[in-house]
Specification:
Elements lengths: L1 H5 L1 H14 L3 E5 L5 E4 L1 H7 L3 H4 L4 H5 L9 H8 L3 E9 L5 E12 L5 E10 L1 H14 E2 L2 E2 L3 H15 L4 E4 L6 H10 L8 E5 L5 H9 L16 H4 L4 E5 L6 H13 L1 E2 L8 E2 L3 E6 L3 H7 L4 H7 L2 E4 L10 H16 L5 E2 L1 H9 L5 H15 L4 E2 L27 H10 L4 H8 L3 H13 L1
Parallel strand pairs: 8-13, 8-14, 9-10, 10-13, 15-16
Antiparallel strand pairs: 1-2, 1-5, 3-4, 4-5, 6-7, 11-12
Helix pairs in contact: 8-9, 12-14, 15-17, 19-20
């Protein structure tokens, strides 16, 4: 070190060699925001040579939309605080838009006085390309999953859609049954026709009958004109009957006739109409149990259960949560004009460990609320309800006297996640090493 101080030129040459060897772009500016140093990686990323960059205002080289609004270097100089990993877009020498991650700090002399700023940046093009590749690989008509059972559904969906078969979608509320219905319609020969949705649990019986089958003027009090039903509106398209388990028994008989004969009769009409419609139905109820107890017709169940697609709840496919969080953040950033980069480690722990009784719909609601309330670049745990409910006890998991989950619970947890310890540890709210230690102790007992 003493030798380097005696030979400052050699010291600067050594420093230059080090900076030119790093993979990240590095440049410095003086107090007038003019570039005073530009390393080799900065040349590669921007396309500008060191000779072209030195002495130029940094905004002339980087040409980013944030240069005159939220410049990281100006912000660091003004606040005397580092700016870390901010994602921005720049234009390279060939005017191609390029995503980079930027960190900026104040540059000080030997006495600690500010003399400019230093910025490091890295090219995110490959990362974003990989992200798009992953999204494309695990996305299917607005549906996102890497879970094996869901991937099998994606695989058979085109074949099911191409047929005229009636489909029953079964899954808990919020799992995305309507998205599956829309995918079935969009992939079908009827894609140019309408997709009409009826929620069978949303209306009282008489109004629901008129809603589905239509009504003639005077058919009931308040029917002052002919009203086309959803069956007529869905002509040459698809009729999606959501929550069909809530359909009253009297209307189940009428629907059965449509499915058997493709005919229906609007309320108050004297003649039947033909129905050129493909039926997709959905429910969160156990229809087989309802058949046994007499609240759902057996013959109707057989008619709608030609193809049965079961949609897994989100708690059984924890590997989908990161994908869904990324998708939701991108969506709501666009919706609300924000540029939130991601979630803090604490917020991510809350979201990864949540049980999601409301499934995908609940996840979307949580992220949307957090995006609306977030004023920073990162969503913190304080913006999420239940931030302190990530321990095994708070999720109702049985613990042994030693404070770890019981052996029975650990076995069931691993079975549920197909032996994947990472997913099991995530549900428990512990790291993988802790889970491994618990399993080792359990097997030694």
């Amino acid at each position: 070190m003493t030798g380097m101080n005696k030979n400052p030129c050699k010291h600067l040459e050594h420093l230059s060699t080090i900076l030119d060897s790093v993979a990240d772009g590095v440049f410095t500016v003086d107090e007038d925001m003019r570039i005073t140093w530009f390393n080799r990686a900065a040349e590669v990323i921007t396309g500008f040579s060191r000779a072209e960059a030195l002495g130029q205002s940094c905004c002339e080289i980087f040409r980013s939309s944030v240069c005159f609004t939220h410049c990281p270097l100006r912000e660091a100089l003004a606040s005397d605080c580092d700016v870390v990993n901010r994602e921005v877009d720049i234009l390279d020498r060939n005017n191609r838009e390029m995503p980079i991650s930027v960190s900026a700090s104040v540059l000080r002399d030997g006495d600690g006085r500010p003399v400019g700023g230093v910025e490091t940046f890295r090219d995110l093009s490959q990362l974003q390309a990989l992200k798009k590749e992953v999204e494309a690989r695990y996305s299917f008509h607005d549906l996102v999953s890497r879970h094996p059972a869901m991937r099998r559904l994606f695989d058979v969906l085109p074949d099911v859609a191409a047929s005229a078969a009636t489909v029953l979608l079964q899954g808990e509320s919020g799992t995305g049954k309507e998205l599956f219905a829309r995918a079935l319609h969009d992939l079908s020969p009827r894609k140019d026709g309408p997709l009409v949705v009826v929620n069978c649990g949303a209306l009282p019986e008489q109004l629901l009958e008129a809603e589905i089958f239509g009504a003639r003027r005077g058919a009931y009090t308040g029917a002052v004109e002919d009203r086309p039903g959803r069956l007529q509106q869905a002509e040459k398209g698809t009729l999606f009957l959501d929550e069909i388990g809530d359909l009253p028994l009297s209307l189940q008989v009428k629907l059965l006739r449509v499915l058997e004969n493709r005919e229906y009769q609007p309320l108050g009409a004297k003649q039947s109409r033909k129905a050129d419609v493909r039926f997709v139905t959905a429910t969160h109820r156990d229809l087989e149990a309802m058949v046994e107890e007499g609240s759902f017709r057996r013959d109707l169940f057989f008619r709608i259960n030609v193809v049965n697609l079961k949609i897994s709840p989100l708690r059984e496919r924890g590997e989908d949560i990161p994908l869904l969080l990324e998708m939701a953040l991108d969506r709501f950033n666009r919706t609300y004009g924000k540029k939130i980069r991601g979630f803090s480690p604490e917020a991510l722990a809350v979201l990864l460990n949540h049980s999601y009784p409301g499934n995908v719909r609940e996840l979307l609601n949580l992220v949307e609320r957090a995006v609306i309330l977030c004023r920073d670049e990162t969503i913190g745990a304080e913006l999420l309800p239940g931030a302190n409910e990530t321990s095994p006890q708070s999720r109702g998991l049985a613990l042994s006297p030693s404070g770890r989950p019981t052996a029975d619970m650990l076995e069931k947890l691993l079975q549920r996640h197909g032996g994947n310890r990472t997913l099991a540890a995530r549900e428990l709210g512990v790291n993988r090493t802790t889970l491994w230690r618990w399993l080792k102790q359990m097997r030694a007992e």
